[in-house]
What we know:
The structure is a homodimer.
Chain A (H helix, E strand, L loop, with lengths): L7 H12 L3 H10 L2 H8 L4 H8 L4 H10 L2 H9 L3 H8 L5 H9 L3 H9 L4 H11 L6 H4 L6 E3 L4 H12 L8 E4 L5 E5 L1 H6 L6 H4 L7 E2 L4 H10 L4 E5 L5 E6 H19 L12 H28 L1 H6 L7 H24 L8 H30 L3 H31 L10 H26 L1
Parallel strand pairs in A: 1-2, 4-5
Antiparallel strand pairs in A: 2-3, 5-6
Helix pairs in contact in A: 3-5, 7-9, 8-10, 15-16, 17-22, 19-21, 19-22, 20-21, 21-22
Amino acid sequence: MVNFELTREYIDRLQELISAKDENTITSLLTDLHPADIAEIYEELSIEEAKFLYFLMDDDKAADVLTELEEDDRKRFLESLPSEIIAKRFIDNMDSDDAADIIGEMDDERQQEILSHIDDVNTAGDIADLLNYDENSAGGLMAKELIKVKENWNIPTCLRSMRRQAEEVDEIYYVYVVDNDGILKGTLSLKKMLLSPVDSIVKDIYNADVKSVKEDVEAEEVSYIMDKYDLVALPVIDSVGRLVGRITIDDVVDVIREEAEKDYQLASGLTNDIEASDNVIRHTRARIPWLLIGLVGGILGSRVIGGFEGIIDEHPQLAFFMGLIAAMGGNVGMQSSAIVVQSLASGNLGLDSTVGKLLKEVLIALLNATILSILIFAYNKIAGADLALTSTVTAAMFSVVVFASLFGTFVPLLLNRLKIDPAVATGPFVTTLNDIIGMFIYLTIGSFFFSLLV
Amino acid sequence: MVNFELTREYIDRLQELISAKDENTITSLLTDLHPADIAEIYEELSIEEAKFLYFLMDDDKAADVLTELEEDDRKRFLESLPSEIIAKRFIDNMDSDDAADIIGEMDDERQQEILSHIDDVNTAGDIADLLNYDENSAGGLMAKELIKVKENWNIPTCLRSMRRQAEEVDEIYYVYVVDNDGILKGTLSLKKMLLSPVDSIVKDIYNADVKSVKEDVEAEEVSYIMDKYDLVALPVIDSVGRLVGRITIDDVVDVIREEAEKDYQLASGLTNDIEASDNVIRHTRARIPWLLIGLVGGILGSRVIGGFEGIIDEHPQLAFFMGLIAAMGGNVGMQSSAIVVQSLASGNLGLDSTVGKLLKEVLIALLNATILSILIFAYNKIAGADLALTSTVTAAMFSVVVFASLFGTFVPLLLNRLKIDPAVATGPFVTTLNDIIGMFIYLTIGSFFFSLLV
Lengths: 454, 454
């Protein structure tokens, strides 16, 4: 059933069945459901109810569900279980990469305890290896399970060996070809195997032009490569070129989406991954930091304005357009930053140098600034504002738009060079900064024109 | 070579080789490169230079490069070629989905012309079929090429038939199982084939629990399903359940990234897909619309302030905090909207009703509002502001934060129900609206306290 729709009714019914301990009905319900759906259901249940469900599922499914859970739900659930159960019921039935991710969420002591309960030494060893990698590196994304053949084998030998290996692997996307030292040589597509005569040797039919990454390559780079070259799986090699694992696209899809979402969250002033279903405290924790920045910024802004108290006392009409100019600075700056951030993320920055980019941005800024200044000038004329105010607003609009676009282009490029996530530049921080500077420019120009023309 | 890095030097060298018509060197250069890399290079070349490269590539590679090009570069390039070349050199060597996408970019007349030049009637027919689908539907994403076996076949029969079919297909992810009427029954994993005895019948070993979508399902829904269930390929069925095509993950990765990027662009005030490498005019076109909205909003804001001219004349210090309060309204509203937008996108809205969400948002808002009001109150006390101003700023901060979060939560939910992209709510439009309303609340409260306390 593709379109499983989680409803309040469904949960209520399930909870009744659970409290009635109606194991048969529940078991048949669960067998129809995909682990991802069960994970959604789980998030609506109490620990006790969830446990009851878990022990009605076979080990493979229970393990899959655990992998699909949100991190904090999973933590809560696992804390309530003894290490041995976790090891034997869940970890033993997972791909090494999922197992490592989940164990990696626990403290070292618990990690050791669980690993010690895993019967198969190789599995435990694989997981231990993976735990050593940074989770945002190729090594952290890869799974140890893969299918490889030696370059000097013929197809029947390959098939025999693949049968053995296949028991370990969920899905076969590529068959990897290695030499006797385990050095990655290339891939053997199943298509090629189907189309080649049975007696052909791997050496003569494999595809040597294979993309691969070293263990320590960053997750973002991995996703960029798999996305650009439309790869479903990407082999990972060690420093001497030996095949150590493979990264599958489903793990990378998460990286790609999370990257894009992270930028969006920073742009909209949210600190960490937050969902509508999270509780009030988490929501506040995710929002208040940026609001505090905004508050401090606003207070600084008020000081700036305070510094011009005299001129505002004399010409209160100056206050009318403060908000407009400040907001414009914020909007323009955010646009410029967003474009840089996105180009950096997609690796699509073109070949222009930083100076080249700034020069181009100057042109765009001048164009926008001209259009906007003309419009605001026209408005002031029509509204019959006095010459001083009109000149101030027009000149301020022009300078603020130009300044903000350059500032907005430069900051993310700078952050990027400083190895800070450039997306921060599209967040309230720089926007607030632009507000303040815009305000300052406006009032400075204002005091000039009003002292000149009044 | 994974890390092909496009450099200015590389392009210069290539352009020299092209003007020197050094075909051999260029050909050997090109054979080392992945089509996606060649596409990047192409974007730096003139049409003439690009054409020269194209005719040095074999048909398959040329077709792949064309698929990898940015849409507008591809258009420019194809316009300079006769329909027959396009049909025979490119379209004939593409998967039906890529072919349909590319032909779909042209006007009907050109489409017919090209289709008429395709030798294989089936291919032409497949493409014509695909052209009928909305490009944002499952039908628009799918390719006709797939490998299917009948449920009553045995493994040797499957292998024989798969050999024939494999010539059409680039990569084999799943083998689909259909009955004699072509109705999709399930999938047969290659793993299963490897592990089962040769004489077993498909019926007894295939996996009947297969996800599929109807032709008219929206692309967003497709990507949600493939992402949630970690699918590499998703079969597409017609209204009676017959297998008509398959969607592969690489096409969906693009949908996922574009969706996320679209939200980010809307949030940062960019209208259409824009990249740093685009020209000045395109940049201005992408930015000016939101800036105009901001301008109009700012002007309205100035009218609002103008409406309170009297009170500002008397108490210019009111002007100090206008910016702060307005900005706070904008920030808070954007945060609330962003959370709703993201939950809607990830289909992760939880089970709370709209009312439930608003109630929860009230709690969060009250919490944030209290914190921020206390802080701004403390600041005013320390800064020694008079009682009227202190009360105004504190009360305004509280009301604006509460109002903006509710407004920011409600608007995207409303837009979503009206089938308008809710991400619009995080853009400058609602932010500007929040600015203005914030300003109004502030000055209303101000006139109250100042008339009361002064």
